[in-house]
Amino acid sequence: MIAASLRILARGVFVAVTLGASLHSTHLAAESLDYRLEPRRIADDTWVLIGKTEDFSRSNGGNIVNTAFVVTTDGVVVVDSGPSRLYAEQLRRAIARITPKPVIRVFNTHHHPDHFLGNQVFADVPTAALATTISGQRQEGVAFVDNVYRLSGDWIKGTESTPARETVGAGVTAIGNHEFELIALSGHTEGDLVLFDRSTGVLFAGDLVFYNRAPTTPHATMAQWFAALDRLDAISYRMLVPGHGDPVSDRRAVEQTRRYLRWVERALREAAERGDEMAEVLGLAVPAEFSAIPLSREEFARSVAHLYRRYEAGTLGRPQ
């Protein structure tokens, strides 16, 4: 495991590193490729499709992410388009089961593949994201498709990286009878878009918040992430939709994410100050508080690969 993690660090490919999934060669027949998307109503006009708290695999086809949609008087607003062309096609059919209104806008919360690789299915609709997100989609999108296909197989056939076409920034926009506050943050990635529906009190937090699923850190900057969580805590929301895990009506998802990241940050900093080799850091125990959270061990190993060199570099030149 240690040698594999070191090779992953050298390779630096996001999906293979962050989501480390089963690479077995089981073939899935085309007729079995059904994500079985079931929208869950969480507020007036608001539905969430909740993904599995798993890695990318050939059994789940990348359905590991939360997507959502809001039915306004003008049409449907989609938050994240999912991990593949097939997912987005099935998402549009799921929306059509709820409402005959057309999709009129898609927002991408950030540039990771499970959140935007369905964009090509919305070619007839404005797709929007922060400028830094669009830049990341352009730079890494093709590699994302290749790696997600390697991890998930036939589910990803026909998927093309399609960056969002419209740049948005912080501000308030009215769409039909809903007023959305767009909040531009960073920490999980360079650009993390949060949407707060002031009309319902629903906060779409993207991957700044994970709940009962260990956070991923391939593009993380911890100080910015903690600042973003503080910003989310200042919002009087009625319901929070994390990027992964069940929606919650209280602060527990934000707090769980904060505590997990504080542990990772402290563990890496203290290890660097001791002069530990990466192999030693990989052997650290996961605290009992987090050990039952899905993928906590796997994501900690990946965080060591992603981040530990920074902490080692930060100790250079300090007086001993």
Structure description:
The chain is an alpha/beta fold. The chain has a single domain (26-250), classed as Ribonuclease Z/Hydroxyacylglutathione hydrolase-like (Metallo-beta-lactamase, Chain A, 4-Layer Sandwich). It is built from 10 helices and 12 strands. The strands form 2 sheets. The chain has a 7-stranded mixed β-sheet with strand order 1-2-3-4-5-6-7. A 5-stranded mixed β-sheet has the order 8-9-10-11-12. The longest helix is centred in the C-terminal third of the chain and has 23 residues, at 252-274.
Number of strands: 12
What is the CATH C level class, in words? Alpha Beta
What's the shape?
globular
- Spatial strand sequence of the major β-sheet: 1-2-3-4-5-6-7
Listing every helix as H and every strand as E from the N terminus to the C terminus, the arrangement reads HHEEEEHEHEHEEEEEHEHHHH
Low-pLDDT stretches are 1-30
**Distance N terminus to C terminus?**
32 Å
Please give a handful of descriptors for the protein shown.
seven-stranded mixed sheet; 320 residues; five-stranded mixed sheet; single chain; alpha/beta; Metallo-beta-lactamase, Chain A; 19% strand; globular
Q: How are the secondary structure elements laid out?
A:
Elements: H1 2-11, H2 14-18, E1 40-43, E2 46-49, E3 67-71, E4 76-79, H3 85-98, E5 103-107, H4 113-116, E6 127-129, H5 131-152, E7 166-167, E8 171-175, E9 178-185, E10 192-197, E11 202-210, H6 222-233, E12 239-244, H7 252-274, H8 278-282, H9 288-291, H10 296-315
Parallel strand pairs: 4-5, 5-6, 6-7, 11-12
Antiparallel strand pairs: 1-2, 2-3, 3-4, 8-9, 9-10, 10-11
